[in-house]
Amino acid sequence: MADWTQLPKDLLLLISEKLNSEFYLIRFRSVCSTWRFSIPKPHNLFPFKLPHFSDSDDCDIHKLYKHSIFLIKPPTTSNQQTLYRPWLVRISPTSSGKFKSCHPILPHSLIIPSYPRLLDFSQLSVFNIGHMYIEGTTQYPYLSTIAYHQYDKSVAAFQGGQPLDILTRRNDSRELMMFRCGDDHWTKITNVAESHEDICIFKGRPCVTDETGRTVMIGSDLSVHLVAEPVFDGDGDGDINIIVENESELLLVHKYEDDDYDGYDDDYDGDEPVKIDVFRLNQKEKKWVKLANLGDRVLFWGQGYSFTASASDLGFDNGNFVIYCNDYDNVFGDTALSVYHLDQRQTFPLSDYPDYVKLFRPPPEWIVSRCHQ
Q: Most buried one in 123, 207, 294, 357, CB count within 10 A?
């Protein structure tokens, strides 16, 4: 049997560079003393100090805070009658410099009292499935403009574990601002449409989409490169586009009102009838291709951030649906969440699916028993 402790240092460094999370780096270094001393200890770069916007009178110190989304897998059991469910949670910073476990989709300012105060990840099977970056002040790291403006958003590109570029979409001024690490100021991105709707990181670079679905990538030299041609006319009032990276592919998600739908089920308390279409980027032809389904994937659409996960990893029999927030004015409960099934072309309240609700809260008993309250 091979002795893993004897792997060459150069190979260990190459492996560590493929790990896109400091959480995985910590676990990688914990395998043995040889690995620990071969790989530099990851530095906590967050909160990351940001310069003020030139048009702002705000005197508070602004920083970029990192929120991580984890899927905690249940323990294996030989008892076929005992079925443990996984748990999806977001770990967010607090004003005291510590961290809190929060709802993964509802706004980051919402901290659920029933969540454990302490999670011992060394005792749990944990997968880091996404990050979100929030601009906040030193005093209120978990409150930022995203709590007051629905579609403000920040994304961060990294190189060699260090922040490279930070792109912020400002809802109040409809501006895209780039901060290149090493600069002392924000730079406005001017050669993009004012109707830009969402930003994300794809292949390590910031991308921007507008109301027509036209999508561009911003280079490190602030150049703008076409990623995908428009797919909509952009005239739909209330239509929303988001872009999200999914297993090295880029997806465009289009949410719009369903004019042909006769009405919801009598028990439905959600928003107006909607449809959701999902498109995959054809990189060679620079166009969006409508998908018949998402296969095993589940798409989570939160307030200002989105991510995908495998249905089998989540403990579900099937994927091909979207869980999204339908009411940003009433986010203090799961009634604000809806489920859209792409095969049925229909929306249902999350409460219709108890197994989906249990993915978020309350924390499973097997986690509570392993954590200090």
A: 207
Residue 102 Cα distances to 40, 113, 298, angstroms: 30, 9, 20
Look up residue 181 and give its DSSP letter. Answer: B
Report the distance separating Cα 65 and Cα 61, nearest Å: 12
pLDDT tens figures, 165-189: 888 887 666 788 888 888 888 888 8
CA distance 362 to 365: 9
Q: How much is the pTM?
A: 0.81
Mean per-residue pLDDT for 250-272? Answer: 64
User: Is 209 buried (19+), middle (13-18) or exposed (0-12) by CB count in 10 A?
Assistant: buried
Which ranges of the chain would DSSP assign to H, the alpha helix? 9-17, 22-29, 33-38, 311-314, 354-358, 365-368
CB distance 75 to 84 below 8 Å: yes
Give the type of residue at 42. Answer: P
Task: Judge whether 160 and 17 are in contact, CB under 8 Å.
Answer: yes
Under DSSP, is residue 300 helix (H, G, I), strand (E, B) or coil?
Answer: strand
Query: Considering just the CA atoms, what is the radius of gyration of the chain in Å?
Result: 21
Which is more confident, 306 or 123? 306
